[in-house]
Write a structure and sequence with these properties.
With about 270 residues, this protein is of the alpha/beta class. It is built from seven helices and 16 strands.
């Protein structure tokens, strides 16, 4: 399967975000991608909570998601919206991944489990839990015979989630992100490769990159990692762009047979 990862610098309004993303999606489809993945926060990025929340809608009403549903139909491709910042039915905000079928219908959704609440050495502070409600379930979904394990950004640091997804049959882990620049420089590639090696899975990491309207800086460097831990393809910058790679459906099975860590794990007590 050919996949296309979209690297964006998402603006602070829905209309601008859709105008920014659609040409990149069309470029990936023109390159032959059957599955196209976008980053975390594809529909809007705005750090200021009081400015952001009034702009959020229910998923069914989100103009970016609906625009990408139309694009999936027109291009006859799967589109994985890395995440859309939307309202839940109870009015609370959530960070939601959305997998769209080629007919434009929604195949699966996943709400980000782990909230990025941190004080960085640079002085930057993040409190996702002040804005978003976390999800409470792991999600897999089938795309043309390949099973995806859905996750978002900070989830990357919680290896148990990926083990659970792999044990549920996931062969490809989606890890869309808006990684900070300091943590990206230090941890981005090594953690993506670790999750691939531990589970014998492909990792698809579409990223935000550059300096945004809301003054945040994101790392970029979208990448595809193979089940043996090798970097299959990577953008070496933080500019908007498209990364295309071929996935071998047999590769996860071969990696898991060579290193059967999923099968060999033993229960233990203590310490």
């Amino acid at each position: 399967m050919k996949v296309g990862l979209i690297q964006t610098r998402t603006p602070a309004s829905h209309a601008a975000a859709l105008a920014h993303t659609l040409p990149l999606v069309r470029e990936a489809a023109a390159a032959g991608a059957r599955l196209i993945l976008t980053p975390e926060g594809t529909n809007i990025l705005q750090k200021d909570r009081e400015t952001l929340l009034p702009q959020l809608t229910l998923l069914a009403d989100d103009p970016v998601v609906n625009g990408l549903r139309e694009a999936a139909r027109a291009l006859d491709v799967w589109i994985n919206v890395g995440s859309a910042l939307v309202k839940r039915d109870d009015g609370k905000a959530t960070n939601r991944q959305v997998l769209i079928r080629p007919d434009g219908s929604i195949a699966a959704t996943y709400d980000k489990l782990h909230m990025f609440d941190v004080d960085l050495p640079t002085g930057e502070t993040a409190r996702e839990s002040a804005t978003y409600e976390p999800g409470d379930r792991a999600v897999t979904a089938d795309v043309d015979g390949l099973k995806l394990g859905l996750s978002i950004c900070y989830d990357l640091r919680f290896a148990a989630l990926y083990r659970a997804l792999a044990l549920a049959g996931a062969q490809v882990m989606t890890i869309p992100a808006a990684f900070t620049r300091p943590t990206g420089e230090a941890h981005w590639e090594v953690l993506m490769r670790a999750r691939a090696i531990e589970t014998g899975s492909y990792v698809l990491a579409a990223a935000q990159g550059g300096f945004h309207e809301d003054r945040r800086g994101t790392y970029g460097h979208s990448l595809v990692v193979g089940p043996w831990g090798q970097v299959v393809a990577q953008l070496d910058h933080d500019e908007p762009g498209v990364l295309v790679a071929d996935l071998d459906p047999a590769a996860p099975g071969k990696a898991r047979a060579a290193i059967p860590a999923l099968a060999n794990a033993q229960p233990f007590t203590g310490p």
